[in-house]
Amino acid sequence: MPFRKGVCQLLALNKFSIQQWMKTFDAMIFDADGVLWRFDNPVDGAPETFNALRAMGKRAFICTNHSAWSRQQLFDKAVRLGIIVEKNEIISSAWALAHYLKERGFKRKVYIIGGQGIVDELKDVGIESIPIKERPLEGASLRDQVLNMPMDPDVGAVAVGIDQYFDVVKLTKACCYLRNPKVIFLATNQDRALAVNSDLFIPGAGSMVSAVQAIANRPPFTCGKPNALMCLHLMREGIIKPERTLMVGDTLYTDILFGYNCGFQTLLVGSGNTTLDDVSKAQKSKDPMMYRQIPDLFLPSISDLLKFLPSKNR
User: Fold this and answer.
1) What confidence tens digit (pLDDT) does each residue in 77-101 have?
2) Separation of alpha carbons 122 and 239, rounded Å
3) What does the buried/exposed string (b/e) look like for 275-297 if buried means 16 or more CB atoms within 10 Å of the residue's CB?
4) Which of 24, 82, 104, 189 is deepest in the core (most CB within 10 A)?
5) Cα dihedral value 155, 158, 162, 167, nearest 10
6) Catalytic residue selected from 26, 31, 191, 250
7) Which of 148, 143, 107, 152 is nearest to 125 (CA)?
8) Distances (CA, A) of 124 to 95, 97, 108, 127, 224
9) CA-wise closest residue to 161 among 134, 188, 123
10) Is the pLDDT of residue 110 over 50?
11) Mean pLDDT over residues 184-192, rounded?
12) Which tens digits make up the pLDDT trace of 34-75?
């Protein structure tokens, strides 16, 4: 029988119980898309809640699998939306990938399928990358494009993230590099899709990673959530204590599993990719490891916490 783990709906508790629960953590790790903002707009009340929790003395970090933007761009967006946060309190999967290579002493070039965020983060740690602005040659067959495709012998890694210009030429080139077993295969993240609204989804980085993996015939090392690598530096340096940290996310297989892998409490919010129906399906799953994706707590939106916070902190 699969292990059944319960999920507490916070709004079913009284105000005193919720306030007592808030004393059980000192730090909060927030996902971004679907939790704090949705594309260019804030989730209603989310910036105010984030700021109020900081005013209570909670440490607050943003940890996102969004790799198309650099940490500087994510910081600028957070500030524009009214979120009080420092740049070094934002962790992205592109940042995690760059620092993973830096810690390995990587000295070669990286071929990128992805956005400018990966390029910028690699540059910040002194790692060179292959330009990502390649486009198919108009009118040329795939065979001709492959035969005339420039290959750099100094490439030592292939990094794959979300790429709005993903095509068969990039896929072919990445897999040509990965035929060499010494070339490292990295993924920023494996989010399968991003919700535009309740009826519309766009492909996430995971769809592009899966395409490369299928042809390269080997799995990548994934640097973003649910890999605990993303917050390892915070734990190593004693900035956060896992048993006193809350992970707030909107996706079971990235955010909630990440929280489990790190030893955090987990809070799922319904303002993004996942509903309570999805949690119920996970609870009924025959997969014996699915319990790791069941959140400890649920709220329709992080802003629902605001009314339980001291008025002086709002």
Assistant:
1) 999 999 999 999 999 999 999 999 9
2) 24
3) eeebbeebbeeeeeebebbbbbb
4) 189
5) 80
6) 31
7) 107
8) 9, 12, 15, 8, 18
9) 188
10) yes
11) 96
12) 999 998 999 999 999 999 999 999 999 999 999 999 999 999
Q: Backbone dihedral region of 121: left (phi > 0), alpha (psi from -120 to 50 degrees) or beta?
A: alpha
Examine the residue annotation and report whether 33 is marked as an active-site residue of this protein: yes
Chain centroid, CA 226 distance in Å: 8
Query: 26, 33, 296, 304: which is the annotated catalytic residue?
Result: 33
- The answer to whether 155 and 130 are in contact (CB under 8 A) is yes
The conformation of residue 264, written as its DSSP 8-state character, comes to -
Report how far Cα 208 is from the mean position of its chain's Cα atoms: 15
Whose tokens are 């210009």? That residue is 165
pLDDT in tens, 220-257: 999 999 999 999 999 999 999 999 999 999 999 999 99
- What pLDDT is recorded for position 83? 98
Question: Which tokens sit at 159?
Answer: 């990094």
Strands 184-187 and 221-222: parallel
